[in-house]
From TrEMBL:
GO terms for cellular component: mitochondrial large ribosomal subunit. It comes from the Eukaryota. InterPro entries: Ribosomal_mL37/mL65, Ribosomal_mL65. GO terms for biological process: translation. The keyword Mitochondrion applies. GO terms for molecular function: structural constituent of ribosome. Keywords: Mitochondrion, Ribonucleoprotein, Ribosomal protein. It holds the Pfam family PDCD9. This is Uncharacterized protein. It is found in: Mitochondrion.
Amino acid sequence: CIGINMPRYYGWQSLVVKEKILPYDFLPFAQTVTKTKIYEVDTLPNRLSNDDCQQFIDRIKPQLEDSLIFEYNRNRSRGKAIQSDENIVESKPVNELAKSVAEQVNRIFLANLAADYPHLFEAQIDYEPRVEGFWNVHGFAATKEDEEMRKKKNVPKENLKNPVDRWIHYFGQPTIQVRHNLPLPSVPLDKWTLTTPESSNTDIPKTAFKEIGIPNYDYDPKIYHKLPYERRHGVSIPGLLKINNYILKKLVSEYRSAVH
């Protein structure tokens, strides 16, 4: 972080993107700044049979019901009861209840799944972690302000409208973050069939998918999406303190030796 911010100790002009704030037609911008392709599929591969899924649901259903009742009564006893209304808007009591329910559901799922999948015992849970991302993206259309700035720097006229770079500063607010040293495998696209305009519905299997490539984004996000354009110090925080098992064991052993 220090190396990024040293040239601009007062911060970088950045497009600020925050979780839960999704302007209209935001997908092309999100794909452009993250270089992400999208695959639309009807169903995802399931390693569990329908019988196994039903048995798991039957096993956790009473636990989920008890946890929901417990969290609802606990919030009501604190004076944070939520009125039953079809048009419930996001508010602090609603968020508090949703956070408590999410933590309970995560606990129940891990406790029951770990009996059959022991590697889940090594999963690490972060509650309300701080997640920030800061990166530079090339290829945005130059605005009039960019052209005027280039004129002041004596940039040749033929280069005034060249694409410009933009710094992106993302702020995430997850309720729960689950980490493990065994990440989920990628979806096996080689077993699927790409949907094309020439293919008929009878020829497309259930595993067909449609690919959405990275679009050519030619708009100014400050105008088109009303994104804040502010000076920010570049910080990238994954929501956890990166520390490997070797360092952790060493710290624990040193602490024990110091205590004894």
